[in-house]
UniProtKB/TrEMBL annotation:
Name of the protein in question: Shikimate kinase
Residues binding ATP, per UniProt: 10-15, 114
Subcellular location: Cytoplasm
Binding-site positions, substrate: 32, 55, 76, 131
Short name of any one Pfam family annotated for the protein: SKI
Source species of the chain: Virgibacillus siamensis
GO molecular function: kinase activity
Record note on cofactor: Binds 1 Mg(2+) ion per subunit.
Length: 161
């Protein structure tokens, strides 16, 4: 069984995944890290090949990592493909890290590496609202992350799964 961490950009999926990986045997992996190593930087993939190609790489990353790791941190857009959701459902537990938009904003204030964040406020808010529904719709467990440390969150996940 694999624990999948899902949630919006900046919700802490990678950081919490690493902490959890230190506590649970079976290892941690991250779809964005896999994509970066296999295909090049995310910004470049978006710029040169477009989002659709990125989504194909992302699905390939998810498939690859699911077979070998007990904890998988996903990219914020993993829920954009139904087949990704089906794979996660079939293979383990989906944990949604739920973070307020204002908190995300302050965490990603200086971020330049996320193509879908580097846009105007209206688009960001719209994406956040739409995605929140998708995360909520497929998660087995939702964990509020505001005002909590990665260690607290990892502990909550361990208790919940
Ligand atoms: C994306 C989120 C990013 C990364 C890419 C697209 C998205 O991952 O996969 O920039 O569509 O929300 P993080 O959620 O780790 O920032």
């Amino acid at each position: 069984m694999t624990i999948y961490l899902i949630g919006f950009m900046g919700s802490g999926k990678s950081t919490v995944g690493k902490v959890l990986g230190g506590r649970i045997r079976g290892g941690h992996a991250d779809t964005d890290v896999f994509i970066d190593a296999q295909y090049g930087t995310i910004s470049e993939i978006f710029r040169i090949h477009g989002e659709n190609t990125f989504r194909k790489y992302e699905s390939a990353a998810l498939e690859n990592l699911s077979a070998e790791h007990e904890i998988v941190s996903t990219g914020g857009g993993i829920v954009e493909r139904q087949k990704n959701i089906s794979l996660m459902k079939a293979n383990g537990v989906i944990v949604y890290l739920q973070t307020a938009f204002t908190e995300i904003q302050s965490r990603l204030m200086h971020d330049t590496e996320r193509p879908l964040w580097n846009t105007d406020m209206e688009k960001k808010e719209k994406l956040f609202r739409r995605r929140s529904q998708l995360y909520q719709g497929c998660a087995d467990i939702a964990i509020q992350t505001d005002q909590k440390t990665p260690d607290d969150i990892a502990g909550e996940i361990q208790e919940a799964v």
